[in-house]
Amino acid sequence: MTQSQRIVQDNFAERIAPYWVRFAVGMGQIEWEPGVIRLALAEADTPAEAEHASPRLSDAQIDDYHERDRRALPWRPPLQMTVRARFSHPVDVLRGTAGFGFWNNPFVGSGAAVAPNTLWFFFASPPSDMALVPGVPGWGWKAASLNGGDVNPVAVAVGNLLLRVPGVARWLLRAASSYVQAAEHPLTGLDVTEWHDYTLFWDQRLAVWTVDGAEVLRTAHPPTVPLGFVAWMDNQWAVMRPQGEIGFGVVDLTQPQWLELSQVQIEKL
User: pLDDT for 74-90, tens place per residue?
Assistant: First the structure.
């Protein structure tokens, strides 16, 4: 692995580099073989056990932000990220959420501590339905950005409380949707079980996503706050609709599934 103030480059040839923070819970497993890191969710409990138990949270991820102050997250524009990746199953078979890219890890417990900011390739399966961009489904495999700005944490905490008040959630979500700038493009028709090169260029006033060199999304309103890198697979779902519907939970896993990475390169430009 190459690591400096300007570049992180890892092809996982000899090990999982100590630069990465590893995190796995539940049925989450982080596996390595020369040239590949596998973020896996193991097979669910036996049918007899699963019949009498609720699904448990499972997550496998690497990142470079754990234990950091959000103001000290390592990545700011301009930069370019390239990840070579593939999934174990097609998009319509995978369960939970998965992906890789940048975010500010905004959530604490069941609520947000700061406004969310993301730039990544993101997957979510039903029952997830995060309808952030009109005309784009709230699930699937996407190039996606969410610019929540640098909102005061106290304001976010108040918002979390108000979302629990009947009749207020719908109004608050509509108000937030007019403030938050989102951009998404579904990556339909892509065989995600094959290796692909996913690239993100991030500048102050422009972000561009490409897959195997072909542009799939660009936005003139990317986040400008510091972000951290994450690659993960979990069994969570989330619903957030402008009508005021909000929900979170975990799904059952009926078979093993994984996300494999053979390269991660992040270069400051």
Answer: 999 999 999 999 999 99
pLDDT at 49 over 70: no
Q: Which amino acid is at 38?
A: R
| CA 84 to centroid of chain Cα atoms | 16
| Domain boundary assignment for the chain | 2-268
CA distance 104 to 129: 21
pLDDT tens digits, one per residue of 230-247: 999 999 998 876 655 677
Asked whether residue 156 carries a pLDDT value surpassing 70, the answer given is no
Backbone φ/ψ region at 119: left (φ over 0), alpha (ψ -120 to 50), beta: beta
Q: Please give the structure tokens belonging to residue 256.
A: 């093993």
- What the block records as the tokens of 215 is 């542009």
Domain 2-268 class, CATH top level: mainly beta
* Burial degree of 221 (CB within 10 A; 0-12, 13-18, 19+): middle
CB 238 within 8 A of CB 127: no
How many residues can be counted in the chain?
269
Cβ within 8 Å of residue 239, ≥6 positions away: 127, 128, 129, 130, 138, 245, 246, 247, 248
pTM listed for this prediction? 0.87
